[in-house]
Design goal:
Distance between the termini of chain A: 46 Å
CATH topology of chain B: Non-ribosomal Peptide Synthetase Peptidyl Carrier Protein, Chain A
Structural class of chain A: alpha/beta
Strand content of chain B: under 5%
Oligomer: heterodimer
Shape of chain B: globular
Radius of gyration of chain A: 23 Å
CATH topology of one domain in chain A: Rossmann fold
Order of helices and strands of chain B: HHH
CATH class of one domain in chain A: Alpha Beta
Number of strands of chain A: 26
CATH architecture of chain B: Orthogonal Bundle
Number of helices of chain A: 12
Structural class of chain B: mainly alpha
Distance between the termini of chain B: 14 Å
Shape of chain A: globular
CATH class of chain B: Mainly Alpha
Chain lengths: 433, 78
């Protein structure tokens, strides 16, 4: 973060609440003072790159901001990664130090710093000369292994808008208050929103479907002014239900990608994107085109590049990026059909069906095919067709599959297991659709 | 087994898949965090099981059941 920008943050409404939770409140002034001291502490850590494996919390926000001030690169890791996935990720994307909010019972290729020690690290003087740190984010790995995308803070603050960092960046830009729920459960989020009179919520369509199902039929007590949806396709009926439940709220859906950043936001209460975005001129910040049924994006913002020695042409020579989203035009609308790859989008979390290796490796399984099954709640769920080995009952095989899949993140676990006599193949590959 | 008992058994199986402690599930049980504690992934699984077993499910039909009884009623049983 630049000196000028940090000074704006540090001196913005010092008394105003920045972070709010059930039993704590941090003002802008107090919290940024802590971040400046933590930034100085981070400079004492070995190496230029570290990672954090932490749940959404004030501690995570402190690490993100302090890293930005200290000039170190920070790799943000999904807290839902299992220990094995965490280890594999750090082997692919090495860091010097991992800050974790939990003890890890595994040997990792990095020095592990437990988040409880952050206060000790922030014991010294506040940092005065700020440096430009980078944020590193892993893509969903739609086209293979997840890639590590680099973002500088000026770009993040300019217009990037995607899940996770989006809310923090939005709050910092506007000097508003970020509310933390007790956990990431939808009910806890709604409870916190009610208690703290939250006006804006941004989440996935799956969050909103679940929220609508769990809210009381009347008098839900939420005074939302702005609702944002992103990361998944959704139907017109979800928008209608949201409008009925929150008549005062402006409802917007955002189309974004990790590489390209925020691309377009739509507030006309219709699913999909307007066809008019295909006719934007070359001086537009973001342009769109459709090639072989796939949406391509060309943006003047977005990532600074990939970290490490990744040899991949994400953008073509003219700067176009293939989004992986298959679309069709219907009347004046671009509608989403699914992904070009076999990635399964479970509630906004991308899961690769190659996780089926874990099922196929079981001695009781002869053959398995993992695929995305349409679901009214999560958009898609992971389903698996299984041919059992002779001599095993369906019940035994199902229990073995469920136990083996406990090693996967919750979104990646099969929610529907179907026993079949045979699985169709196509050129010696499993047919997934 | 009646439909109500089948649906309760389905919910208990889903809770077991989540390694959640056995819970008394009755027709009056609230489905979500204030009751049995089904989160969005559990509800997604429940909708898939209901659809596979009975050929339809309330969530696909744009209904938002709040209790076990609401699901049973969807199938015309009380």
């Amino acid at each position: 973060m630049s000196n000028a920008f940090c000074e704006v943050l540090v001196h913005r409404n010092p008394e105003r609440a920045f972070l709010l939770g059930a039993d704590y409140q941090h003002s802008y002034g107090e919290f940024f003072e802590y971040c400046r001291r933590l930034a100085n502490g981070l400079l004492q850590l070995k190496g230029d790159r570290f990672a954090c494996y932490m749940a959404d919390s004030p501690e995570l926000v402190a690490v993100i901001l302090a890293a930005g001030m200290s000039g170190k690169s920070l790799l943000l890791l999904n807290r839902e990664l299992t220990a094995q996935q965490l280890s594999a990720t750090l082997l692919r994307h090495p860091v010097d130090t991992l800050i974790s909010d939990t003890e890890l019972d595994i040997i990792l290729p990095a020095t592990v710093l437990i988040a409880d020690a952050l206060d000790e690290l922030a014991n010294g003087e506040p940092l005065v000369e700020y440096r430009e740190g980078e944020i590193l984010i892993l893509t969903s790995g739609t086209t293979g292994e997840p890639k590590c995308v680099r973002y500088s803070w000026p770009v993040l603050f300019a217009q990037v808008n995607f899940a996770g960092l989006q809310m923090l960046v939005h709050v910092l830009r506007n000097g508003s208050t970020l509310v933390f729920a007790e956990s990431n459960k939808v009910t806890h989020a709604l409870q916190a929103a009610r208690q703290c009179a939250v006006t804006h919520i941004s989440s996935t369509p799956t969050f909103w479907r679940y929220a609508l199902a769990s809210l009381p039929a009347s008098e839900h007590g939420l005074a939302l002014e702005h609702i944002t949806l992103g990361s998944e396709a959704f139907s017109a009926s979800l928008l209608e239900q949201l409008k009925q439940t929150f008549p005062r709220a402006r409802i917007v859906h955002i189309y974004a990608s990790t590489e390209a950043g925020s691309c377009v936001s739509v507030s006309d209460m219709r699913p999909g994107l307007p066809v008019s975005i295909l006719h934007r001129t070359e001086d537009s910040a973001v342009q769109f085109r459709i090639v072989d049924g796939e949406l391509h994006i060309r943006s003047t913002h977005g990532m600074d590049g990939y970290a490490g020695s990744v040899e991949c042409a994400a953008r073509d020579a003219e700067g176009w990026l293939a989004s992986g989203d298959l679309v069709k035009i219907e009347n004046d609308r671009i509608l989403f059909l699914g992904r070009r790859s076999e990635t399964i989008n479970v509630g906004g979390v991308k899961v690769h069906p190659l996780e089926e290796n874990i099922v196929c490796a079981l001695p009781c399984v002869k053959l398995a095919r993992v695929f995305g099954q349409a679901n009214p709640v999560a958009g898609q769920i992971v389903a698996v067709d299984v041919v059992a080995q002779v001599g095993y009952t369906d019940q035994v095989v199902e229990e073995a599959i469920r136990e083996a899949c406990l090693a996967l993140s919750r979104h990646a676990r099969p929610r529907s297991i179907n026993f079949v006599a045979a699985i169709e193949t196509n050129n010696l590959k499993l047919k997934r659709q | 087994m009646g439909k109500a008992a089948e649906i309760i058994a389905m919910i208990q199986t889903i809770l077991k898949h989540q390694a959640m402690p056995p819970t008394d599930v009755t027709l009056a049980s609230e489905l979500y965090d204030d009751g049995i504690g089904l989160d969005s992934l559990c509800v997604a699984e429940l909708s898939a099981v209901l659809e596979k077993t009975y050929g339809s499910d309330p969530y696909t039909s744009k209904q938002m059941p709040r209790t076990v009884s609401d699901i049973v009623s969807f199938y015309g049983d009380t």
